[in-house]
Amino acid sequence: STSQYAVSDKIEIENNGIIDSFDSSSGAYGGANVSSAAVISTNATGDDRIRVKDNGIVRGIAQVGAGGDPAQVIDLQDSGSITGSTSALAAAVSVPSSISAPSGTGSSQGTVSISSGTTVWSSNQHFDELTVENSAVIKINGSVTVYVEDELEFKDSAQLQLLPGASLTLYVVDDMKVKSDALVNVNTADPSVFTVYLGGDGSGGSGSDSDDSGGDSDDGGSESEADGDMKVEGSGQIYATVTSAGGELSIEDNGQFYGAYHGNRITVKGSGQLHADLASALSGGGGGASYTYQVAWQETP
């Protein structure tokens, strides 16, 4: 099976966190387009690398590292549940250890805050740090690449919209945050048109304990200093296909992420929700042979 949410280390679902699925080729998540076919996986084989507790639920199947024992790797506590089967991967899912900077984005515009009005990007952009806040709207026209060398933040009621036929490839070396009531690519409801690469050389990652067999492995992944983290909190929403080198996807409060994610860790808590896109191009569960992005990030100068 294809894993839409694949990590090298740990997945933790707690409080009222939910992972379920939808098919973006049938439109936005919701109504009849909600299903229980999500696939989550870890390459790790140590104890408790997938933990579902409190009222957390995975509506789909869970896979552990090749050769691992699901009964050891998966820890269900309280009313935590996985509705589908559990098994071991045939081979590890490919998760990159580094992501190269894109070319062709020109010189950096520095640290920029966009706090009002509508800004249309029809060409590539390069920033040191970027904040989109208040009620500002960014619209993407055509095929655009954006390179942010430090942190990217969408907050308040800011929006990122893709116009018909547009596509956006985003590289963020540090962390990306979607918070408050920000809406990122919600207008298209299509994760395939928004591809995100997080992290740089992968240094400072939190993956050194990926096969930690210790029983008390609540080792604070959310406190990781690794670059390449994505946090969705408040009532933030994002439709995207995300690949991270060494980072963590953290969904908190009423945050919602729609699409697919391959990285180091995933944490869902509060009333956060992850919605796996069954039409995602981030395939390759069990070896990663069908990855569509791999050559691109290896060969980018």
List the SSEs and their pairings.
Elements: E1 5-13, E2 18-22, E3 38-42, E4 50-52, E5 57-58, E6 60-64, H1 70-73, E7 74-76, E8 81-82, E9 86-88, E10 111-114, E11 118-121, E12 125-127, E13 129-132, E14 137-140, E15 143-148, E16 152-154, E17 159-162, E18 167-172, E19 176-178, E20 183-184, E21 194-198, E22 230-232, E23 237-244, E24 248-251, E25 256-268, E26 273-277, H2 294-299
H-E string: EEEEEEHEEEEEEEEEEEEEEEEEEEEH
Briefly note the structural class of the backbone. mainly beta
Number of strands: 26
Determine the strand fraction and express it as a percent band.
Answer: 35-45%
Describe the overall structure.
It is built from two helices and 26 strands. The protein has 301 residues and is mainly beta. The longest helix has 6 residues, at 294-299. The protein has helices at 70-73, 294-299; strands at 5-13, 18-22, 38-42, 50-52, 57-58, 60-64, 74-76, 81-82, 86-88, 111-114, 118-121, 125-127, 129-132, 137-140, 143-148, 152-154, 159-162, 167-172, 176-178, 183-184, 194-198, 230-232, 237-244, 248-251, 256-268, 273-277.
Which terms summarize this structure?
disordered C terminus, mainly beta, 26-stranded parallel beta sheet, globular, 3% helix, 301 residues, single chain, 2 helices
Q: What's the short version?
A:
This protein has 301 residues and is mostly beta strands. The chain has two helices and 26 strands. The protein has a 26-stranded parallel β-sheet that branches.
